[in-house]
Design a protein that fits this description.
InterPro entries: CheY-like_superfamily, Sig_transdc_resp-reg_C-effctor, Sig_transdc_resp-reg_receiver, Tscrpt_reg_LuxR_C, WalR-like, WH-like_DNA-bd_sf. GO terms for molecular function: DNA binding. This is Response regulator transcription factor. It contains 10 helices and 6 strands. With 201 residues, it is α/β, with parallel strands linked by helices. The protein has 2 domains: 135 residues, Rossmann fold, CATH 3.40.50; 55 residues, Winged helix-like DNA-binding domain superfamily/Winged helix DNA-binding domain (Arc Repressor Mutant, subunit A), CATH 1.10.10.10. Strands 2-1-3-4-5-6 form a 6-stranded parallel sheet, with helices on both faces. α2 runs parallel beside α3. The longest helix has 15 residues.
């Protein structure tokens, strides 16, 4: 039996996935969690072979949770299931050691097959997401530029962004200006939107 942990903060989706995967004769749902923190707290007791995680979780996201799970249970393979299949997220997930990446529109039969594939040591990336990631290219932003754009995403002022990023207002303006120039944006709000659309923040 393939021991599976499901991590999704939407109860309806998580329980639906559990019900569908439970129908598979070679899959056993050994645990469910509504956050990355809950998953990490219970991981040693569940000892799953495969963790299926939502990308957008409250607190630590699915990619970081997957990375930490690998540190605690090295044999556990992780799959990210998301409605935010942006190229940057895919690249980040693969760099973190995630073995499967697919959209939430995936059928239950495909998800079960991907669980088997990653459990056997393989990888699976949704073909449409893979093609989009190749077309998008790598992020032109430095890590610090990405940070300040992330802080700018909710419309924060320069002073607020500087405080969150632990930078001076002048340095913050410089990073935002450089990021906007690289992305061909007229201001930090547009730059943030462009970076988010590509999954670079």
């Amino acid at each position: 039996m393939i021991r599976v942990l499901l991590v999704d903060d939407e109860n309806l989706i998580r329980t639906a996935l559990a019900t569908m995967l439970d129908l598979e004769s070679d899959v056993e749902i050994v645990g469910q969690a509504d956050s990355g923190e809950t998953a990490l707290a219970g991981i040693q007791g569940w000892r799953p072979d495969v963790a299926v995680l939502d990308l957008q979780l409250g607190g630590i996201d699915g990619i970081e949770t997957a990375q930490r799970i690998t540190g605690l249970v090295p044999r556990c393979a992780s799959i990210i299931v998301t409605s935010h299949g942006r190229p940057g997220y895919l690249k980040k997930a693969l760099a973190a050691g995630v073995r499967g990446f697919l959209p939430k529109t995936t059928s239950a039969a495909t998800l079960a097959d991907v669980v088997r594939t990653v459990h056997a040591g393989g990888r699976y990336v949704d073909p449409a997401l893979a093609a989009e990631a190749i077309g998008a290219g790598d992020s032109p932003l430095t890590p610090r530029e990405a940070d300040v754009l992330e802080y700018a995403a909710d419309g924060a002022s320069i002073a607020e962004i500087a405080q969150r990023a632990h930078l001076s207002p002048g340095t913050t303006r410089n990073y935002l200006s450089a990021a906007a120039t690289k992305l061909g944006a007229v201001n930090r709000h547009e730059a943030s939107a462009v970076a988010r659309r590509h999954g670079w923040i």
